[in-house]
Amino acid sequence: MSHKLFLLPGDGIGPEIMKEVKAIIDWMNANLDVSFETDDGLVGGSAYDAYGVAISEEDMAKAMAADAVIFGAVGGPKWASVPYEARPEAALLRLRKDLGLFANLRPALVYPALADSSSLKKELVEGLDILIVRELTGGVYFGEPKEIVTLEDGQKRAIDTQLYTTSEIERITRVAFDLAKTRSNRVASAEKHNVMKSGLLWKEVVTKLGAKEYPDTPLEHVLADNCAMQLVRRPKQFDVILCDNLFGDILSDVAAMLTGSLGMLPSASLGAPDEKTGKRKAMYEPVHGSAPDIAGKGIANPIAMIASFSMALRYSFEMGKEADMIDKAIATVLEKGLRTGDIAKEGDTVVTTSQMGAAVLEEI
Ligand code: ATP
Ligand code: MG
C-alpha cells in the first residue's frame, strides 16, 4: 500500500531542509518494503508570491487528502507587509483548523552527544526525554468573546475567553495517556485549578478519564507555574506533560530551551481518528521557524526536519522500527562529532545542511 505524503517546504530554510527529508524518502522507497507517494505544494510567502494567498485551495485540498503533511517553515521579512489574511502564518492556522489538528506533540530530547549544549548543568539535562502534549484548537486562543471594546469613559477593555468542554479535554487526555504507554508511562497534567474554572474542569476530566481508562498509568497534577519552575529545576522528573493551548505554548518553549538546540526539535500535530479507517490527519514540522538570517546559505541544521519525518513514520504509519532507525542515525552522527553551525562549539568542524543530511542517510 502506498502512503501519500504532501510536502510543504515553505520559505527561508524550509526548502533546504526539506531536500534532506526527500533524500531519505527516496532511499526508503528504493530500499525498504515501503512506498511513499509524494507531492509538493507552496505555503506561506512562496504561495503568496505565486498565488497571492498563504495557501491555495488546490494545495489545501491536497493536504486534506494526504496521509500526512510534512511542513517546513513559513515567513520572513520579505512578507512583513502583505495583507493580514495572506500573511504566511495564516497558512499554518488554516491547516491546523481545517485538518482538525487538536493535539500538538513536542518532544524535548537531549541527545547524549549534545548534553553540554544546554545552558543548564549537564547532570540536569543528560538523558532528558520529555514529551509535551498541548491542546491546539481550543482554549483562550479561540474562545469567544475575544475583543477590545471602548468603554464610556474612553478606556478600552480587552477580553479573551478561556473555554474548554469536557470532550475537548477528554480527547487530548487520551492522546497523552496513549503516548505515555509507549514511553515511561507517566503523565503530569498542568493547569491552574486554583484560579481558573477551566483548570478545575481540566483537572476533574483528566482525573476521571485517567482512573477509568488508564488505571495503570500514574497521573500527577501540577500547577502550570510550578511546572515551569520544575522544568528548569529538575526536568527529568517528567515523562509526558499534558496541557492546554496557552500553557502548552509556554511550557513547550521552556522545554525546548532545556535542550539548547532549536535546530534539533521536531513536532507533530494530530487530528481525531477517522470513524471508518481509524487514521488521523496529521502534520509534522520542525519547531524552529524559517530562519531568514541563514536562508540560502546551505548551513541550516536539517535534524529537526528529519526528526519530524521520523515522527510521521511513528505516528501516521506505524513504522516505529524505521523511526527508531532514523532517530538512532541522528544520534550516531552527532556522536561522531558532526555539527552544523547552530550546535557547533569552538573547535568543532562545521558541516553544511547537505553534508549533515547525507551523513544521517549514510548512517540509516
Ligand atoms: P518564527 O517566528 O517562525 O518562530 P523565529 O523568529 O522565532 O521564527 P527562527 O526562524 O526559528 O525564529 O530562528 C531563530 C534563530 O535560530 C535564528 O537565528 C535562526 O537562524 C536559528 N535557527 C532556527 N532554525 C535553525 C536551523 N534549523 N538551523 C540553524 N539555525 C536555526
Ligand atoms: Mg518563534
From TrEMBL:
What domain of life does the native source organism fall in? Answer: Bacteria
Q: Which residues form a coiled coil?
A: none
Query: What's a GO cellular component annotated to this UniProt protein?
Result: cytosol
User: Which positions does UniProt annotate for substrate binding?
Assistant: 96, 106, 134, 225
The record's principal subcellular location, in a coarse class, is cytoplasm
Q: Where is this site: Important for catalysis?
A: 141, 192
What is the purpose of this protein? Catalyzes the oxidation of 3-carboxy-2-hydroxy-4-methylpentanoate (3-isopropylmalate) to 3-carboxy-4-methyl-2-oxopentanoate. The product decarboxylates to 4-methyl-2 oxopentanoate.
User: Which HAMAP family did the record assign?
Assistant: LeuB_type1
- Relate the assembly described in the record: Homodimer.
Q: What is this protein called?
A: 3-isopropylmalate dehydrogenase
Organism, as annotated: Cohaesibacter marisflavi
